[in-house]
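During the first year of the project, the team set up a workflow for recording each protein of interest as an amino acid sequence followed immediately by a discrete structure-token representation. This format lets reviewers and collaborators read both layers of information side by side without switching files. As required by the reporting guidelines, we include two representative entries from the current panel. The first entry is reproduced here exactly as it appears in our internal archive.
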Amino acid sequence: MTDINAVASELSKVKLRLDQAQLSYRDASLKSRREIVILKRLISRLSIACRGLDSELDDKLTSLRSDLEQHKDISKLIPRLAVVERLVTQQADFAQTENQHLSQQVQQSGEVLRRLPGLPVQLKRDLRNLLSQPADTLATTHKQAIKLMALYERSLKLISSSNHDAASQHPGNVDQDLQLQLTAELQHLITELDFDGEAGDKLLSIRNRLLIGVAPSTLIELSLEILRLVMDGTNQERRSSQQFLDKVNSDLATLQKTTSQSAGQSSAIYEHRSDMTNELADIASSIRSGLKDNKNLDNWRPELTGLTKELLVLAERNKALEKREKALLEQLSYNENKIQTLFEQTQDYRQRLNDQERRMFLDNLTKVYNRAALNDRLEHEYRRWLRYQHSVCVAMIDIDGFGEINSRFGHLAGDKVLKIIAKTIRQQLADTDFIARFADDAFMVILPDVSENERVTRLNKVRETIAQLPFRFRDQNVSISISIGATLFEGNDTPSNIIERTSKALSGARRTGNNRLLWIS
């Protein structure tokens, strides 16, 4: 009986453990099903939230959601969840970078609109309130951008209305697009010119005023002033050239006269010298004959005395000829020095002309080559590439946030940045490399016959060096970086293809963030 009770007790314990195990299994199963439901809901919401951001991420989320609906083993889906996590992280970083760019653009565009003359007080107040709001999230920045677009629309309507009223009252007013085109052309003209003195200084001052922006009436006055200064500078160059040519002509006329006189004197000296030589030969012949025929020298003495006198006369004439020859040599030495001086003057003038021609291909602000020189060099490298098929790397460099620098610190600060960065780029390049100013804040460099590792190293060194430059404006430390888009001549490329592709590469580099180098083929 005792044994039976013991067995019954053990059976009871086993049943209890089985019940507990069944309950635990049921709880675990319920928990797993709840986790799967939560995971499905999370993937579904994530798919909706990220839809359209990236095609690869869309495909991964759709496939993952389908497999979850089919109750596949969760453990087999873990690697794909890790891929989705990586893609979502990348999109989050990209969204943060784009939010910064959009926020900067909103601030910059807002500052441009704020400086627009003639805006109503209420619109300026709305704009100021908009720009003062923090933009910590992408949603906030988007709202700011939408509000800014609305303010731009209001401003455009006001300006259009004002222009319409002004045009009806003053039909001769300058068209806005024409004014902007004229302003840009005048700035380009002043950049290409390189006059010394007062005309050059005044032209640079006008260029700075045009950069800031002027009223239509002022623009017309400045256009006339530029024409006058160009005429003054041209006339000054012409007068300088005329004075130089007059001096050269005068010196050449003097040299021609003295050379002609020296030639006449040389001819006369030659004739006199020939006569003296003949006379000396006759006297020598007479002396030789006298010594041979006369046995008694005393009888021949009177004749010998006469011959001696003739020798003395010839000696005096020879001294006179020596003086004339000395004067002729001095004149020839003077002519030689004069010719040397003329040669040096013409060399100096030729160097001035070469320097002037070179300055025509230099950007007046940054002192690197300008767009015209870039076109010539690019065409030259293109023809060399067609012939020899050597590697030619072309890169476009743009200053990140340059418009904001001009808006915050003024155009003089922007000019300083351009000059320093242009100098820095040039210092990092080799002597055979080429740099030119392509546009306002864009530069283009050409690296011919450079290996892949060397060109990547060289461009990255340019980028890193500029990022470390110390800038300080209005007691503020400012960090400035550049973006670079680079490519190589290949296939059926032409210079225009290369410029278009480097511009595309630069745009791609800026989309991924500031201070980036992007290659494209």
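The second entry, processed by the same pipeline in the following quarter, appears below.
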Amino acid sequence: MSMNAQGRPTRAVPSAAAAAPTHTGHRALQLEVALLFDEGDFEGTGVDLPEPAGTASRLGDLAADEAPTLPGLAEPEAMRHYVRLSQKNYAIDMGIFPLGSCTMKHNPRLNEKVARMPGFADIHPLQPQSTVQGALELIAQLAGWLKELTGMPAVAMSPKAGAHGELCGMMAIKAALIARGEAETRTRVLVPESAHGTNPATAVQCGFTVDKLPASTDGRVDIAAFREKLGDDVAGIMVTNPNTCGLFERDIREMADLVHEAGGYFYCDGANFNAIAGKVRPGDLGIDAMHINLHKTFSTPHGGGGPGSGPTVLSEALAPYAPLPFVVEEEGRFRLVEDASEAEDAFGRMTAFHGQMGMFVRALTYMLSHGGDGIARAAEDAVLNANYVLARLSAEMSPAFDGHCMHEALFSDAFLKGTGVGTIDFAKAMIDEGFHPMTMYFPLVVPGAMLIEPTESESKRSLDEFCDSLLALAKDAKSGEAEKFKSAPRLAPRRRLDETQAARRPVLRWQPEAAAAMAAE
């Protein structure tokens, strides 16, 4: 397929509905949506306002020479456009969202309701601290529970997302090395080849050199290779646990002891804390720093456009270097420590203010409504659901590794060999079945990877519907129905893009059709 002059994919034809085309392009309640630029009138606007009298522009020579090329739309037209677009989005409120490594679970509406209470939603970070005592107390209480769940003595609340939390942890490690006088000699950070891409990027951002750790045949860090790479120049290790293959690193305590003996620190990527919260305390495993995605583990809207929150827990060795600001309680009152004179070892600030308040409210609401036993049960259910999916799909698909998994099930494309169907084709066919595809081609250590994370919020019935569909698709692929997969999706509002052409000749801005045609020539 190819892209049209405006850079959009071609329409969903031919399809099952092509046998009975409509005059409008609509298919019942599946309404065709053109670009606003195609719908609007460039000669007029949706609102007729008179020119203001007696005013002069204060922009001087910075004023634009001409009006922007924007379509004029009436309010109902603009509203209908975006409502129709919203109806084409897949969402967790519609069905299972099996993206591995993402934890796309249901967000309890209670959390949303509390986050929108005026005392939380309407406050401003520049208000006098005396007027936001409740908010500061909430941050302190949430910090306390994060420390309790992780077994760590300190937590930095200000990081705004997972990668930001990683940066916080690695900056604390850097600050500790500077304090020891070893920042110039300890420059190497060990990172498993199955790590999230942000891990090596964060290490490099902090001035370290990344040394890749290979995986063993069982999908975990090769402990023998790890031992060989230790040396006086090692600043630390960055490990995700459970890892991105959906497996628990059985040797994590040994790795922590070894890196500490070598004089380095242990950073743990906490993106998958959802699988062990209430069951395992990272502090007991020898972890020095670990970020926690509040927008995954504690049900805030990951993947819904943000914003995120990535508090970072720190060990006793790194606690003095935690960034400003942080909340302290004095004689029943709360305040933010923001002056470096009160925390001389702090490595600085990461954000202008104190963190993401909306995420803090949602996370604490989740914790208090679940309780310790409920959080542990959520982790158990996440692991149970993933192993149920693994067991059911193993009949037709190819598990990447033997044995049980943690919170996500990983498959390779081995079951598609010789069928003419690729991983991406399988994903596109899932769209026609009404499912968002799982994470494809990640982690890179598995050929044609298909990573499925059902999360704890899915019922057995929804898991069975999902598994039945994938099993049927696998059988179709093996039965020689390759064309069905190559032409998918057939029922979506848009067909498959020519991805090679889109990458080589992207159309990044709208142009009138005549101008676009000339540019293409």
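For the second entry, the following points were noted during internal review. Confidence is low (pLDDT under 50) at residues 1-10, 12-19. DSSP finds 16 helices and 13 strands in the chain. Both points are flagged for discussion at the upcoming steering committee meeting.
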